[in-house]
Amino acid sequence: MNELQQYLEIVLEKELQKLVFSNPFSKSEEYKKIIIENKGKTYQIAKYTDKQVFHENIVKEGLFERCLALVENRYKQINGISATEEHIILVSKKGNCTYKVKKTATDVVKLSAKQQGHNRQKNYILREDMNIAPLVDMGVFTKDGKVVNTMYDKYKQINRFLEIIDDEVSRLKVEELNVIDFGCGKSYLTFVVYYYLTEVMQLKVNMIGLDLKEDVIKKCNQAAEKYHYTNLRFEVGDVNGFKAPFDVDMVITLHACDTATDYALYNAIQWKAKMIFSVPCCQHELNKQMKPENLTILSRYGIIKERFSALATDAIRANLLEYSGYKTQLLEFIDFEHTPKNILIRAVRRPIMPKQVKEGMLKEVHAIMEEFGYEPTLYHLLGIEK
User: What's the pTM?
Assistant: First the structure.
């Protein structure tokens, strides 16, 4: 996947109102600019010549492929505009891309009461009129199904996480899913995901939550019984070496500390899981190993070293997932614990992975390992030889 494709995917993940392709590479380009507007259930594409405009409509599922066909090797600039941000992609003559985000004017204007009410009416996956017992126990919903005012941010976060999952689950033509949630803890998110898959998507689901704490597992199993979630169970177990009792379709891992995330990703790869959703935490491994060959400036200041190592950790993981046959994205995501870790890894297994793509991903991993003296756990778990 080239830079343009990666950045375009990132932009299309946002809640865009408008997308503009402009500044054609060629003066003979038929369409001087293209504007794509969000019309709710569909997107309207307006293609402007010098004298005319041509329209077409498309649903969200086909938007990325259509946008790529319209923009690739044709336009130097892409502007994605949301209610609060403008996402800008600039493409050079050589095809190199730069990406930046700037706040729009509306972001600093306080919304009127009417506008705030309109925002609350957004079509969330989990609506206020749904009877969702785990959200009541979490204190997010009242007993009559209304969002508690002080919990509205958490309500939006939960829906955002489900939207990230929904983007992939909605594309699958399956009636059953087998799911493993590593390091489930006492969070009710496992129950919410189970509710979404079974009640919203109407799928038959077999789901296992795994954690090391026996008291937590006991309480979670009691809650599953209370909610009548018959195919959701919790087990005491270590992410390292866990044997799945079924063919795994989806792996979720949230806040697995340091290399526990690597073991979870490795298991998912070995199982050939169709989908992986991971929010890493506490990435200490590479920070301890970091000894730059040339870029010593990145290790001179503790906070810079720590943050760079965390970003390098997830970049390496993403490349190794691509190498292992997954289409991988690193998405901005403010998680439920309000920690500085705000990256979610979403990986979807591809039926075919071109050899040159795999080799390119691995070459980049070897380059960063050599520069900084890194020895990533996931790299060695996969048994890759330099």
Answer: 0.68
